[in-house]
Amino acid sequence: MGTTGQTGPRRVRSFVRRTGRVTAGQQRALAELWPRWGVEPPADTLDLDTLFGRQAPRVMEIGIGNGDVLLTMAAQYPEQDFLGVEVHEPGIGHCLLGLEKAGLDNVRLIREDAVVVLQHWLAGACLDRVNLFFPDPWPKKRHHKRRIVQPAFVALVAARLKPGGLLHMATDWAPYAEHIEEVLAASADFVPLAADSDRPPTKFERRGERLGHEIRDLRYRRQ
Ligand SMILES: C[S@@+](CC[C@H](N)C(=O)[O-])C[C@H]1O[C@@H](n2cnc3c(N)ncnc32)[C@H](O)[C@@H]1O
């Protein structure tokens, strides 16, 4: 599975690699189902038409967690292709079990840092939509640099989105919503859209709601 790292000085990452508890079912899924839905690091860059065996609108979801939202949206929009990116192994295993049950053909999973995927695995403006739902908020000031939404990340997403493409983010952490708005306001590549949402509720969203946090959807159109 994906191990492609970046060469050069160590980049600040938006996650901490944790092994996590992989259940027996997830272990089987990772061994048996990965060849069908998993994507290995490409020698060059990914050809998405070959990967999905068709031409279709392409959605990337970054940080799928347990993959429930990815599965729901992929079932809801069978005419679109979904690339789910996650670094946490149990989440990938959980999602593979869901894929087996639903038998969805329009989903592929990547186990790698989404920044590496955007930078090295993909080329050109190949995506119609990028979803980033409840990214780790890194609330402590000294950890703010770990937040995935930074000017360089936004520029990278802009490079991979087709003109008119959608960047949909959501967070339950008010200071992160403000940070996202500041970073996106400074980008000439995106214009803000109304805060509608077509996404299903996520696991982290429910947790945020239990804690009394306000949920914010932040959507931007690639110019
Ligand atoms: C707070 S959880 C939210 C999960 C899910 N979107 C939800 O709302 O339930 C954030 C997830 O993003 C993943 N993540 C963080 N940084 C990432 C990166 N650079 N590339 C891929 N996944 C990442 C983490 O492993 C974690 O599962």
Give a structural overview.
With 223 residues, the chain is α/β, with parallel strands linked by helices. It has a single domain (41-86, 112-222), classed as Vaccinia Virus protein VP39 (Rossmann fold), CATH 3.40.50.150. It is 35% helix and 19% strand. The protein contains 9 helices and 7 strands, in the order αααβαβαβαβαβαβαβ. The chain has helices at 24-32, 34-37, 48-52, 68-76, 89-102, 114-121, 151-160, 174-185, 203-210; strands spanning 58-62, 81-85, 107-110, 127-133, 161-171, 190-192, 216-222. It has a 7-stranded mixed sheet, with helices on both faces. Strand 4, helix 7 (151-160) and strand 5 form a beta-alpha-beta unit. The radius of gyration is 17 Å and the shape is globular. The chain starts with 23 loop residues before the first helix and ends with a strand. The site of S-adenosylmethionine has 23 residues, from helix 6 and helix 9.
Summarize the structure.
With 223 residues, the chain is of the alpha/beta class. The protein is 35% helix and 19% strand. The protein has a single domain, classed as Vaccinia Virus protein VP39 (Rossmann fold, 3-Layer(aba) Sandwich), CATH 3.40.50.150.
**Average pLDDT for all residues:** 95
Q: What's the main sheet like? A: 7 strands, mixed
Which CATH top level class fits?
Alpha Beta
Shape: globular
Ligands, ions, cofactors:
S-adenosylmethionine
Structural class: alpha/beta
Strand order of the largest sheet: 3-2-1-4-5-7-6
CATH topology: Rossmann fold
How do the strands and helices of this protein lay out in sequence?
Layout: H1 24-32, H2 34-37, H3 48-52, E1 58-62, H4 68-76, E2 81-85, H5 89-102, E3 107-110, H6 114-121, E4 127-133, H7 151-160, E5 161-171, H8 174-185, E6 190-192, H9 203-210, E7 216-222
Parallel strand pairs: 1-2, 1-4, 2-3, 4-5
Antiparallel strand pairs: 5-7, 6-7
